[in-house]
């Protein structure tokens, strides 16, 4: 349904298809050029639509970008939400590493979109970072500290442990071109899971 229309009126199949086309095209353009470098003309061309047709659905580049980010933020938190305090600590944390790496494999454009937003100072998602993200991280940090106090994992700084997991897994998406240039014919995600699990197993084992 085009922005500004009656929110209660269901979208037609064509309207939903065109919105999906626009969002898919915008994800490609934003992840490649960043917010500042992207234009509505580029998005329209990528979507195979005219610019006036695109503007029928979204009034601005900002509206499209915000739509992508709002959906992405929730998806980005899911792997951490799945970390269970009732599980075996090292297994839970290694599974979190696996899920984050799999996100980089399956959603590289989304990862780069998020990274571009952060590099620019997170002007459009700063409140979400200070709100939903921080609340969830604080919750899981309390779990990690409890595991440490019980001697179930090594004495690690919980926030920096999480930062390390983010950086080592998201690197494969955000620096995909560099990784593939260095590895040549080797597929990055063939060896990465076992390697990262080995690293974090050594860090976490008491």
From TrEMBL:
UniProt entry tagged with the keyword tRNA processing: no
UniProt DNA-binding residue ranges: 39-58
Gene3D superfamilies per UniProt: Homeodomain-like (1.10.10.60), Tetracycline Repressor, domain 2 (1.10.357.10)
UniProt keyword DNA-binding present: yes
Domain HTH tetR-type residue range list: 16-76
Example of a GO biological process term: negative regulation of DNA-templated transcription
Keywords: DNA-binding
GO MF term list: DNA-binding transcription factor activity; transcription cis-regulatory region binding
Protein name: Transcriptional regulator, TetR family
Organism: Litoreibacter ascidiaceicola
């Amino acid at each position: 349904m085009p922005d500004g229309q009656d929110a209660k009126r269901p979208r037609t199949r064509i309207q939903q298809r065109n919105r999906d086309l626009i969002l898919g095209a915008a994800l490609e353009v934003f992840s490649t050029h960043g917010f500042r470098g992207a234009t509505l003309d580029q998005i329209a061309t990528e979507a195979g639509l005219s610019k006036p047709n695109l503007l029928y659905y979204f009034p601005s580049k900002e509206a499209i970008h915000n739509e992508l980010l709002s959906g992405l933020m929730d998806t980005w938190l899911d792997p951490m939400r799945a970390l269970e305090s009732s599980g075996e600590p090292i297994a839970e944390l290694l599974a979190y590493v696996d899920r984050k790496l799999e996100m980089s494999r399956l959603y590289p454009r989304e990862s780069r979109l998020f990274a571009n937003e952060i590099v620019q100072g997170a002007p459009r998602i700063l409140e979400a970072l200070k709100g939903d993200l921080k609340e969830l991280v604080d919750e899981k940090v309390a779990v990690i500290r409890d595991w440490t106090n019980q001697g179930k994992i090594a004495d690690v700084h919980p926030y920096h442990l999480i930062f390390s997991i983010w950086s080592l897994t998201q690197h494969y998406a955000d620096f995909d071109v560099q990784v593939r240039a260095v590895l040549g014919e080797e597929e990055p995600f063939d060896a990465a899971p076992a390697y990262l699990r080995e690293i974090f197993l050594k860090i976490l084992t008491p």
